[in-house]
Amino acid sequence: MSHGVRRVLQNKEALEAKKLKDQSKIRDYITLTSDVLNRKKQNDWSSQAFQLTTELLQVNPEFYTIWNYRRRILLNGIIPQSTPEQIRDILAEELSMTMAALKVHPKVYWIWNHRGWCLDNVPSGPGTEQEGDPRGWEKGFWDRELFVVEKMLDADPRNFHAWSYRRIVLANMPIPKPLTAELAYTTRKIEANFSNFSAWHQRSKVLSSLWSKGELDSNKSKEEGASGILYHEYISNSSLKEFDLVHNAMYTDPYDQSVWIYHRWLIGSGDDKDILEREIEVIQSLLEEESGSKWCMESLVHYKRLLLSNHASTTDTSTLKRDCMGLLRRLLEVDPSRRARYEEIELEIARL
């Protein structure tokens, strides 16, 4: 039994037949690869060369050199001879081809990369600057691509390739999607699975953008959610606060690192003493229930060190240092593989 799949015992004849079949496949692959690479050297931009790249990529979709050659064939041989309508159809076929590949290989960079290239090269149309919508095709392609990414994330919510590609799609849509709508999307994904690190990461990207653009106040959104229309858009009549979402995740699975990393990002440099002390109290209460949680202990040490660094004049430094040393001793017991790291932190605290 391997990965839940029962091994099937084969007799000597069956094994020999399989070996011969595999050898034949290898010879065919080597021959095909040699042919395609030779055509590449000769700058062969023909339809036959294009078809051969299809055959080779179906066998090995991680052969990025062949993806590059395929695009050069399109740019130098096929697209220059095509009308805008034909180019649109060719790129649609490329997207269909890569979609079939993604169903089998959802985490191959080069497939996602090729899809992005196809979308970047959608021609203007069907209208013109004088009549109709000159970006109609682009809008249709990008809208469908967002739908495709959402389907891929429904199938595997933690596929970080799909999350990275989703950011590319959102950044390039002719009609931008509201950032608050994306925040709502990350909320749904996180509430479905608190250990979805990619969703937490996406959430941090969206909030950072909203804060930098002045569309949300960073302090208020952490404590109160958003207000007015923005609040309604991304939380949909809920009184959920950012820290409440994090606390819920912490208590659901205190041993999962995703929420702790996000929480550390949310706290930042620890300039707000009140938030630091409140969060320390929350985590301390959780540690009393989950005494073996490494992440509880590590976070308490980190935040208490922030108090020592940023607010030493208004805190009991002796107690904080003593607390940190006690937590580090416990961490040495529950996480001995990081002994050197914890001992180094002890030395740093002793020097404060």
UniProtKB/TrEMBL annotation:
Pfam families: PPTA
Keyword match ATP-binding: no
PROSITE patterns from the UniProt entry: PFTA
Catalysed reactions, semicolon-separated: geranylgeranyl diphosphate + L-cysteinyl-[protein] = S-geranylgeranyl-L-cysteinyl-[protein] + diphosphate
Residues passing through the membrane, by range: none
Molecular function terms from GO: Rab geranylgeranyltransferase activity
Keywords: Prenyltransferase, Repeat, Transferase
EC number in record: 2.5.1.60
GO biological process, one term: prenylation
Keyword Repeat applies: yes
Cellular component terms (Gene Ontology): Rab-protein geranylgeranyltransferase complex
Function: Catalyzes the transfer of a geranyl-geranyl moiety from geranyl-geranyl pyrophosphate to cysteines occuring in specific C-terminal amino acid sequences.
Similarity comment: Belongs to the protein prenyltransferase subunit alpha family.
Stated name of the protein: Geranylgeranyl transferase type-2 subunit alpha
Biological source species: Rhodocollybia butyracea
Lineage: Eukaryota, Fungi, Dikarya, Basidiomycota, Agaricomycotina
